[in-house]
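Whiteboard transcription, Tuesday session. T.W. wrote the structure tokens on the left side:
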């Protein structure tokens, strides 16, 4: 029998208790006997107690959904010039904005998607958002002007933020803290692998079929995955499952006045506190703000490279027809980083817990310290070898190192936030996603001018210096993260 950790019990029982307390404040006449809870810690209906195959199937489905939306974020990067030519646009900043505007959708979408998933459950939010994602991609494919395309790219990003925002919440629903690292590695892989595959595939599609097919391909893939999700994906949010259990018992027993989270006053209060929670976590929790800022720097650096690397290899190495393949350096590095994280993260946590006597979220961070130092090394290798036109495979090695370091940073930060805030994993991830996506949207806009002024060598050296400086944030989080979490001077509700 697997022991239940304190965070597991928080992940299931506390949200229900919170709802019940709010109901008591607004409906004091209702009886405590109306509350419904799990039938003990080993209740088979609790997602943590589902068969392993059922839990992994759900996470794999979420992982596939998560692959589609980051893929869409960068798939049009190689097609920016053909799009500008067709629409008569000459401003290169406007062209770059069609790529980065998508990430602004990522920044704002989580602010309401995460709270909605904690009120209504994960499943309806997944299905509705992915349907909207499909429809907005249809609109992008049919766009006839740059303003039209930019608006629908923003809307696509808003809908596409769903699996990135509530995916960690689904992992927290199904896996206990001591086994969560491997599940988070599986979920995180598409977050960065998608942007790496997008340009590689998009370059061939746009050249062979036209830029519109970059979007039609996404429509086809999303439709196929959404059809599978409708039949396979299950609701995992414990409070939502308990609410369904409540309604079933009400129907069987004929008790229409039983406790419900849908009473108007309490529901309004719950909605307001839930919508405010991601921003409160971001700006009032030093540990969330610090790690989110670190992720924003890393994500912005990655997308800056995504928007400039094809031009570097075209102009400096004469690689034109197969330029999309150079993005696979990032992807291969990310796969290697995920394998490392999946193999060692849970093991390191268990080893440190054996010494300290308890499982702490901060035990996710030691692996990130040496791995994050690989990012500036990769930037230096990529920048200076590209500056002096060293054999093309050497700068690709630099992108491999960058991808390796990036994925370990993102996976460690995401897993830490899920472990630290198990009840509000979706909101904690939303707070991180907001700042991270702003960095991903804005930093690429500065890329062309920076490289024009400093060149590839010194430009990437500047980025390497910033990345190296952020390692201090990881050390601070490891040393003082627990103190910050346990002495927060704000309320989440």
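and on the right, the sequence the group agreed on:
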């Amino acid at each position: 029998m697997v022991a239940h950790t304190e965070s597991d019990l928080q992940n299931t029982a506390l949200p229900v208790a919170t709802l019940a307390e709010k109901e008591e404040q607004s409906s004091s006449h209702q009886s405590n006997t109306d509350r419904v809870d799990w039938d003990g810690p080993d209740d088979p209906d609790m997602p943590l107690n589902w068969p392993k195959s059922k839990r992994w199937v759900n996470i794999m489905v979420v992982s596939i959904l998560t692959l589609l939306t980051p893929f869409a974020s960068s798939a049009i990067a190689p097609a920016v010039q053909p799009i500008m030519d067709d629409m008569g646009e000459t401003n290169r900043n406007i062209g770059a904005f069609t790529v980065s505007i998508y990430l602004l959708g990522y920044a704002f979408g989580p602010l309401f998607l995460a709270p909605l998933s904690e009120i209504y459950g994960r499943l309806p939010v997944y299905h509705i958002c992915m349907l909207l994602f499909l429809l907005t991609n249809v609109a992008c494919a049919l766009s006839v002007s740059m303003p039209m395309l930019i608006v629908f790219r923003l809307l696509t990003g808003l809908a596409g933020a769903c699996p990135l925002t509530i995916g960690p919440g689904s992992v927290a629903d199904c896996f206990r803290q001591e086994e969560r690292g491997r599940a988070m590695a599986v979920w995180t892989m598409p977050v960065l692998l998608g942007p790496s595959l997008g340009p590689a595939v998009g370059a061939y599609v746009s050249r062979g079929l036209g830029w519109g097919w970059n979007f039609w391909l996404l429509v086809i893939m999303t439709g196929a995955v959404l059809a599978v999700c409708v039949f396979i994906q299950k609701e995992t949010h414990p409070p939502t499952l308990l609410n369904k259990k409540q309604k079933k018992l009400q129907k069987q027993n004929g008790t229409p006045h039983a406790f419900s989270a849908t009473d108007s006053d309490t529901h309004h209060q719950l909605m307001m506190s839930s919508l405010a929670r991601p921003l409160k976590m971001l700006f009032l929790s030093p540990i969330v703000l610090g790690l989110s800022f670190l992720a924003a720097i890393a994500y912005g650096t990655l997308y800056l490279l995504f928007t400039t690397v094809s031009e570097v290899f075209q102009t400096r190495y004469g690689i034109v027809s197969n330029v999309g393949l150079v993005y696979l350096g990032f992807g291969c590095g990310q796969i290697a980083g995920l394998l490392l994280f999946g193999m060692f993260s849970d093991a390191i946590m268990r080893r440190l817990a054996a010494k300290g006597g308890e499982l702490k979220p901060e035990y996710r961070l030691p692996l990130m310290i040496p791995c994050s130092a690989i990012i500036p090394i990769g930037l230096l290798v990529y920048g200076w070898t590209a500056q002096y036109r060293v054999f093309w495979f050497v700068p690709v090695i630099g992108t491999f190192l960058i991808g390796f370091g990036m994925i370990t940073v993102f996976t460690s930060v995401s897993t830490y936030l899920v472990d630290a805030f198990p009840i509000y994993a979706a909101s904690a991830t939303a707070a991180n996603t907001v700042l991270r996506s702003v960095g991903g949207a804005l930093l690429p806009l500065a890329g062309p001018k920076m490289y024009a002024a400093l060149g590839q060598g010194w430009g990437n050296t500047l980025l390497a210096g910033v990345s190296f400086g952020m390692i201090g944030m990881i050390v601070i989080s490891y040393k003082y993260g627990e103190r910050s979490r346990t002495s927060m001077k704000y309320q989440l509700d």
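Someone added at the bottom: The CA atoms of residues 71 and 388 lie 31 Å apart.
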